[in-house]
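Long-time lurker, first post.

We've been arguing in lab meeting about whether pyridoxal-5'-phosphate would sit comfortably in this protein at all. Half the group thinks yes, half thinks no, and nobody has a model to point at. So I'm putting the question to the forum: if I give you the sequence and the SMILES, can you give me back a predicted structure of the complex? Inputs are below. Any interpretation is welcome too.
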Amino acid sequence: VDNLCYLNGGIVSLEDAHISLQDRGILYGDGLFETIRVYDGKPFLLEKHIGRMSASASALDIEMPGSVEEINNAVSSLLSANRVKDGSLRMTLTRGAGMQGLWPWQKGKSTFFITSNSNIPYSSELYREGFKVALISFPLNEYSPQAAHKTLNFLDYLWGRREAEKRGFQEGIFLNQKRYLAEGTVSNLFLLKGEVLYTPPLEAGVLPGITRELILNIAAELVEVKEENIPPSWLREATEVFLTNSLMEIMPVVKVETQPVNTGEPGLLTGRLRRLYRDYVQSEQGGS
Ligand SMILES: Cc1ncc(COP(=O)(O)O)c(C=O)c1O
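Top reply:
Settle the argument with this. Predicted structure of the protein with pyridoxal-5'-phosphate, as tokens:
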């Protein structure tokens, strides 16, 4: 993480950034976060991330820290302060501190901070080789009102990720309570079966990924795309599988448990989508 951060209205060094021990983000995971990719010093699709955070904040009755413009300005000031070129941002919002009771009827002042990171944890080698993924042993709960929100309650995902990594896999895939495929621990899932590219629908309990939405649009130029419940057996019939999130963009999956996906090499459509995605990034980032 870079040395400076934005906290409740100003830029401070990480050592000087403090929040209350009473902050509900710490006490209850009562908050939200966003992870945003930065290309050439500019945040990618920032307005979408702010939009998702504000929709969730309003669903949870958490006060947003300011207008879209104010958040934009906070982000720009942090990116220049830390001289970020290619990297990422994390925006964290909590209900704040000092309220009594599990459900505090009085509104408090929320806590908002942004950190930046000038490294991307995914090397080009990883994209060439593709990911090996595990199936996680416990289901995500698509009936939970939390399912659609990127909350600070991340323990299910962390637990699943630990399980996958302990078993030697780079990512884990969750099923949901209905035994359909849901998503990865930090990513949305796509698979190509026959001539159709499938991804689980939001009702499957997946995060409404911003990359997922973009891929649904981009991929429609190349292939028929469907949001549909996917039984896990389709992972064996799929000719391509890939994962998406803001930082990794599009990561090929070459193996699920012990079963190679098709020939066990990153797929052709996956490669074409990665190039289209890069073109889209260029057009977005160059244009503003
Ligand atoms: C559980 C989960 N699903 C999906 C995603 C992908 O979301 P996005 O494309 O908005 O980064 C993430 C992002 O980290 C995630 O944590």
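For your lab meeting: The chain has a mean pLDDT of 96. Helices lie at 24-28, 46-60, 68-81, 124-129, 155-166, 210-219, 234-237, 268-287. Whichever side wins, do check it experimentally.
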